[in-house]
Design goal:
The chain is of the alpha+beta class. The protein has helices spanning 84-102, 130-138, 173-178, 233-242, 250-253, 256-269, 284-296, and strands at residues 5-9, 12-16, 34-38, 48-52, 55-60, 64-69, 73-78, 106-115, 118-123, 144-146, 149-154, 160-163, 168-171, 187-188, 198-201, 212-222, 227-231, 272-277. The strands form three sheets. A seven-stranded mixed β-sheet has the order 1-2-3-7-6-5-4. A five-stranded mixed β-barrel has the order 8-9-16-12-11, surrounded by five helices. The protein has a three-stranded antiparallel β-sheet with strand order 13-15-14.
């Protein structure tokens, strides 16, 4: 019988035959919600996602094949000689994204940090600087809840909760330098001959390990100055829907209507804002003092946010 490892991610108990050093170990309190196994999978010759509903196949050329079943199991068939880190990157990314959609969960392409006991999330496309923002908050003593993927769950009373994600930041080399880090101190997220992102582990004391009620969500956009305006109604729901993690999987899974209902439920539960900001790390003090103030309902001077 293969050795297994227990973890917790996005509020789910994970039991995996593959070691997942990106995650914190978690003692199982009962049967796992998700099982990850090694298994030989047939070659279908189709890169990307195929199948539908409760049986999805994900082929990443030169990395691995993944089978995602019933929101409860992921089978992994790595290509020979591929670094384990590359296999895990797509396992914890795209493959898990498919599983979250199968389970009817709401994964946002966003990060989230804890501010005054509640979660504040920042959503945006790849390259929008979400991880750099999470690093900015982390370096100022705020606990990180999730980086890149923020899964939203709804409590029985309707409150929207942010579920703890992978305890690491993924930063480009220029973002490492801008935040006072050096690439030599960290491993690449994906081993290639090209410049890539780097994994920056977050220590246990700096990560939120319990679900937190969401106070606000900001959609980040590039602008000429700091500007915050509320989004409401269909515009807010559209923003949530558009920033769903692996949203291109939704049609294959067959969850478009369910996802839209979740987006509408979310915008009815919490405020959604558009945050227009300069694409300048030196402007972050002003930008996020304003965002913090909006989220917690009080004015926060820029220097006070640098705690």
């Amino acid at each position: 019988m293969a050795r297994t490892f227990d973890y917790r991610l996005f509020g789910l108990q994970i039991r995996s035959e593959l070691p997942l050093p990106e995650l914190f170990s978690a003692k199982a309190a009962g049967p796992p919600d998700v099982v990850i196994r090694r298994s030989a999978l047939p070659e279908d010759g189709k890169p990307g996602l195929s199948g539908g509903g409760d049986s999805l196949s994900l082929t990443v050329p030169d990395v691995a094949r993944y089978r995602i079943e019933h929101g409860r199991q992921i089978l992994v068939d790595p290509q020979p000689g591929v670094p384990d880190r590359n296999v895990r990157l797509f396992l914890l990314g795209s493959a898990f994204g498919g599983l979250l959609h199968q389970r009817g969960m709401l994964p946002l392409h966003a990060n989230a940090v804890e501010i005054e006991g509640k979660a504040v999330a920042f959503m945006g496309e790849s390259g929008a600087g979400k991880s750099t923002l999470a690093a900015w908050f982390h370096d100022r003593g705020f606990r990180v809840i999730a980086d890149d993927v923020c899964v939203v769950q709804f409590a029985a009373d309707g409150r929207a909760l942010a579920m703890p994600g992978i305890p690491r930041l993924r930063l480009w080399e220029d973002a490492l330098s801008a935040t006072g880090r050096t690439a030599e101190a960290f491993e690449r997220s994906y081993f290639t001959d090209q410049e890539e992102k780097y994994d920056v582990p977050i220590p246990p004391e700096s990560i939120a390990t319990d679900p937190l009620e969401i106070a606000a969500i900001f959609r980040i956009e590039r602008g000429s100055s700091t500007r915050i305006e509320p989004l409401a109604g269909v515009a807010a729901a559209d923003a949530v829907y558009a920033h769903t993690y692996r949203g291109s999987f939704v049609q294959t899974v067959g969850g478009a209507e369910r996802l839209w209902q979740s987006a509408v439920k979310l915008v009815r539960a919490i405020p959604i804002y558009r945050l227009e900001r300069l694409w300048d790390l030196h402007a972050m003090n002003e930008d996020f003092a304003a965002a913090i103030g909006t989220a917690v309902g009080k004015v926060v001077p820029p220097e006070e946010s640098l705690r």
